[in-house]
């Protein structure tokens, strides 16, 4: 039972990342009809927003202290961060420690701006082009963004620690009646799952209960009719592209302490996220979220040693096997809409 609970937690953790990225992918496809292979790069950029803010907060200057000497007898040179000199040692250290959560506010305008530039500068020219053209151009854009990040940040992963308050692990065992340290799970992974649930809920609430969201959903169902009502649906879809970019970026921001950001992490998640979208059903937001958590949990259980000893390598292919089975039995995915990508 303890192993079962632990794998469920692992699955929810993985599924949170899959669901957030797939949600943004589905938002773009459902509104604009664009298959965006650059979406994984937006996840990567979000992670590097955490890295960038951490580096900015740790910028320092040197101060010579003549009252102290180094081992050679020279005046000691000390480094002081600007943030600590502006806000005081305690407040400055706390700001630096909480750089990842603060990167949420830092990344939102950046990701929305990048989304607007991508949509207006490139994507809009491919709305009526075949999906193959969209895939090629957005995949090329993803490679360009990946190489830009590699040039400025290097090829090695950059550790980005979570706040000290969340560096430990939560003991689920004692809460559920098990022995202490039987079922423990890192605090930050629980924070990530909670954050993902909050973002997913906010996106659905926005689409369901706001006038803007209702118009967007109407445009997803019948774009031409909404346009005939005098509503500039293209402008609203551009805003949705920016919001989808922000969702992917926020997923990357909070994932930075879990997986040290590197320039190829976007590609690592992109293929899996597209499998999630296809399994959930192209254009279906609930399907993307449900498939994300479902596949995350299945992948977690497949990674158990007991399972891998019976079927070696199953953890590497389980998602694709499930995708094949579902698509053979339900070609539109779990919650796919009729007519989507069937022309």
From TrEMBL:
- GO CC annotation, single: plasma membrane
Task: Please provide, alphabetically and separated by semicolons, the GO molecular function terms listed in this UniProt record.
Answer: transmembrane transporter activity
Principal location: membrane
Gene Ontology biological process terms, A to Z:
amino acid transport
Per the record, membrane topology reads:
Multi-pass membrane protein
Q: Which UniProt keywords apply?
A: Amino-acid transport, Cell membrane, Membrane, Transmembrane, Transmembrane helix, Transport
What domain of life is recorded for the organism?
A: Bacteria
- Presence of keyword Ribonucleoprotein: no
Family note: Belongs to the binding-protein-dependent transport system permease family. LivHM subfamily.
Protein name as catalogued:
Branched-chain amino acid ABC transporter permease
State the organism of origin. Thalassobius vesicularis
């Amino acid at each position: 039972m303890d192993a079962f609970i632990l794998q469920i937690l692992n699955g929810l953790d993985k599924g949170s990342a899959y669901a957030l990225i797939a949600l943004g992918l589905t938002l773009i496809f459902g509104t604009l009809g664009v298959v965006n292979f650059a979406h994984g790069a937006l996840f990567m950029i979000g992670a590097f927003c955490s890295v960038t803010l951490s580096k900015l907060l740790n910028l320092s200057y040197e101060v010579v202290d003549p009252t102290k000497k180094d081992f050679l007898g020279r005046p000691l040179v000390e480094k002081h961060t600007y943030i600590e000199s502006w806000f005081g040692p305690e407040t400055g250290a706390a700001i630096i420690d909480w750089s990842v959560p603060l990167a949420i506010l830092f990344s939102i305008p950046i990701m929305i701006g990048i989304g607007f530039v991508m949509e207006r500068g490139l994507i809009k020219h491919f709305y009526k082009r075949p999906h193959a053209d969209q895939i090629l151009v957005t995949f090329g854009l993803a490679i360009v963004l990946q190489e830009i990040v590699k040039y400025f940040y290097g090829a090695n992963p950059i550790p980005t620690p979570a706040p000290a308050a969340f560096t430990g692990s939560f003991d689920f065992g004692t809460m559920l009646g098990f022995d202490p340290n039987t079922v423990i799970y890192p605090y930050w992974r629980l924070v990530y799952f909670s954050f993902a649930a909050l973002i997913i809920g906010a996106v659905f609430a926005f689409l369901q209960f706001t006038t803007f969201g209702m118009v967007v959903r109407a445009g997803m169902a019948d774009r031409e009719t909404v346009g005939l009502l005098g509503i500039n649906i293209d402008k609203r879809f551009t805003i949705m592209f920016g919001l989808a970019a922000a969702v992917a970026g926020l997923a990357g921001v909070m994932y930075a302490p879990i997986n040290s950001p590197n320039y190829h992490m976007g590609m690592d998640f992109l293929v899996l996220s597209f499998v999630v979208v296809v399994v959930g059903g192209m254009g279906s937001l609930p399907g993307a979220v449900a498939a994300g958590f479902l596949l995350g949990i299945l992948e977690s259980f497949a990674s158990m040693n007991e399972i891998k000893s019976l079927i070696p390598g199953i953890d590497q292919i389980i998602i694709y096997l499930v995708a094949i089975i579902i698509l053979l039995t339900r070609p539109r995915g779990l919650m796919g809409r009729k007519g989507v990508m069937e022309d």
